[in-house]
């Protein structure tokens, strides 16, 4: 079993006396994982990330990075952490290379060759001498990732790294993250709004809403793990729906999918094959009967909608 | 002092440092040309080395330069957003403030050096060689010692304006606001000093912005000079301490 590189134990944060931004959140991320950290706007993602990085002091709980407490031993804990938090920030009047030199100086003992390496990793070697004020936003994002990589981190925290980028920029960052995970084995905590992207890149996901952790786990296991949710379609939609509703212990999840027009249902304690047999006996002419492919987006909306309901 | 080179780089590559050099150049030349056109008698090139800095400090122009640069180096970290990235590094707030202070203080020293050199060399062109004159155009002895005390003393006391501006920087967290508010507060304080006696002002850094009154006497007032430096450093320590505590206590949002 892999070691936990990040352990969050019951952290909470309240602002302005009564606004609970994060409530008793616990999460573990194993070494080498790429963990997606999802939530709607205002869910508490950035507050959580700032608590992980020691920028905000939690009211309760603690964060351990590679066994070192952020509260008690912050400087050691952060030694192997690289982060991009709420957008890149640079000295605009200095060149990209000079900016990295500045952050390297603050990080301590980073050789010049490492600066050139990270510029190469993010594809900015040719633009290193240009002042950051002349960079596009996408280039600044890439330089931001470069500064996070300076110390060869074991834990890389990226807070919405594709924010504000065009589709090309988004793809570049996505490919970069995948490459980093594959080639260096770095553990990545990725906060993002783009659910499809998280589903592609991450092998673990944690969903937060209104400051509370709603779900976390392996992506494959979270999304219809027991294959109890099925999709069904027929040329005679109304008859099919009526027949399906007549079966005991079947829960209709969606009577009409906007995209496919299919019906989604939970099989309950039925075997899927028996459901099919019963429907055919009742005279339904089935054109589709298959386990529903739950996307992360479906799961996300289901999780965050439950609370609203 | 491992961050000193990078803090120095931030200063010397900034547009604000270029503005400072031009500002110094223009002001010093203006002072010198003003005196030249007044055709005052008995002013020597040596006198000009003291007169320029005396006016520069007295009318808080050195302070303006240092407020400008301190706001860039301290407040600028907040409104650029780089402070949060520095705090992700194994950097202690104490070390960070210390290194920034040293860098700014060295910059102040450079400004003073430019003032001295410019005054001396232009003074040679505009004015005659001569001796150092005090009140009533009396000849003052030991000009080199007086020069060292004046410039080094002013340099040491520059740490006050650095700490004063740092204090407003950590509160306001914005370049322009820091410049405006710090300069305004300083100006208001100086305005009200006219209603306060010297006995009270002797316990504040205000009476030591320029050390000229203690140097341009027949006998150098060593006690006043050292006391002035001590008082200035105490106040600097207080503002630095307040800035440190504020940064240590608050969350980085």
UniProtKB/TrEMBL annotation, chain A:
Question: Where is the ABC transporter domain positioned along the sequence?
Answer: 6-235
Q: Which PROSITE patterns match?
A: ABC_TRANSPORTER_1, ABC_TRANSPORTER_2
For whether the record's keyword set contains ATP-binding, the answer is yes
Keyword Ribonucleoprotein, does the record have it? no
This protein's UniProt keywords: ATP-binding, Nucleotide-binding, Transport
Q: A Gene Ontology MF term for this entry?
A: ATP binding
A Pfam family this chain is assigned to: ABC_tran
Return the PANTHER family for the record: ABC TRANSPORTER, ATP-BINDING PROTEIN (PTHR43335)
Family classification: Belongs to the ABC transporter superfamily.
Name of the featured protein? ABC-2 type transport system ATP-binding protein
From TrEMBL, chain B:
Sequence intervals crossing the membrane: 21-39, 59-80, 101-127, 147-172, 179-197, 225-245
Q: Which Pfam families match?
A: ABC2_membrane_4 (PF12730)
Keywords on record: Membrane, Transmembrane, Transmembrane helix
- Protein name in the entry: ABC-2 family transporter protein
Q: Which organism is it from?
A: Paramaledivibacter caminithermalis (strain DSM 15212 / CIP 107654 / DViRD3)
């Amino acid at each position: 079993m892999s070691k936990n590189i990040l352990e969050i134990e019951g952290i909470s944060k309240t602002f302005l006396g009564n606004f609970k931004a994060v409530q008793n959140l616990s999460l573990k991320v194993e070494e080498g994982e790429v963990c997606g950290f999802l939530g709607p706007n205002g869910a508490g993602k950035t507050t959580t990330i700032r608590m992980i990085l020691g920028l905000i002091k939690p009211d309760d709980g603690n964060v351990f990075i590679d066994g070192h407490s952020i509260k008690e031993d912050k400087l050691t804990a952060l030694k192997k952490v690289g982060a991009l938090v709420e957008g890149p920030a640079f000295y605009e009047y200095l060149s990209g290379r000079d900016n990295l030199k500045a952050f390297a100086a603050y990080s301590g003992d980073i050789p010049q060759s490492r600066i050139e390496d990270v510029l190469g990793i993010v594809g900015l070697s040719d633009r290193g001498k240009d002042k950051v004020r002349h960079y596009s936003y996408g280039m600044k994002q890439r330089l931001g990732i470069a500064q996070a990589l300076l110390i060869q981190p074991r834990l890389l925290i990226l807070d919405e790294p594709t924010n504000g980028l065009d589709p090309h920029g988004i793809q570049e960052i996505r490919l970069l993250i995948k490459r980093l995970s594959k080639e260096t084995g770095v553990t990545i905590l990725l906060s993002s709004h783009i659910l499809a992207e998280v589903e592609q890149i991450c092998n673990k996901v944690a969903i937060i809403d209104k400051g509370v952790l709603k779900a976390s786990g392996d992506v494959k296991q979270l999304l219809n793990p027991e294959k109890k949710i099925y999709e069904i379609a027929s040329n005679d939609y109304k008859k099919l729906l009526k027949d399906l509703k007549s079966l005991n212990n079947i829960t209709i999840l969606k009577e009409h999918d906007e995209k496919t027009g299919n019906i989604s249902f939970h099989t309950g304690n039925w075997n899927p094959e028996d459901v099919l047999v019963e429907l055919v006996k009742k005279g339904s002419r089935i054109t589709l009967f298959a386990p529903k492919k739950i996307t992360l987006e479906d799961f996300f909306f289901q999780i965050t909608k439950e609370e609203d309901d | 002092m491992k961050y000193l080179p990078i803090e120095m780089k931030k200063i010397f590559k900034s547009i604000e440092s270029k503005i400072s050099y031009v500002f110094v150049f223009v002001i010093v030349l203006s002072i010198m040309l003003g005196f030249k056109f007044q055709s005052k008698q008995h002013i020597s090139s040596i006198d000009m080395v003291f007169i320029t800095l005396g006016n520069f400090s007295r009318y808080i122009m050195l302070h303006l330069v240092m407020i400008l640069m301190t706001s860039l180096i301290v407040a600028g970290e907040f409104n650029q957003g780089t402070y949060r990235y520095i705090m992700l590094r194994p950097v202690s707030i104490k070390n960070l403030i210390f290194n920034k202070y040293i860098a700014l203080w060295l910059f102040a020293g450079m400004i003073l050096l430019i003032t001295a050199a410019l005054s001396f060399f232009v003074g040679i062109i505009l004015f005659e060689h001569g001796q150092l004159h005090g009140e009533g155009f009396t000849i003052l002895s030991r000009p080199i010692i007086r020069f060292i005390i004046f410039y080094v003393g002013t340099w040491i006391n520059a740490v006050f304006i650095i700490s004063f501006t740092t204090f407003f920087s950590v509160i306001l967290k914005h370049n322009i606001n820091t410049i405006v508010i710090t300069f305004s507060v300083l100006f208001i304080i100086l305005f009200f000093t006219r209603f306060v006696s010297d006995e009270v002002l002797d316990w504040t850094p205000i009476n030591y912005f320029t050390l000229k009154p203690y140097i341009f006497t027949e006998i150098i007032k060593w006690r006043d000079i050292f006391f002035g430096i001590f008082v200035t450093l105490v106040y600097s320590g207080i503002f630095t301490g307040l800035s440190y505590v504020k940064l240590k206590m608050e969350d980085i949002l």
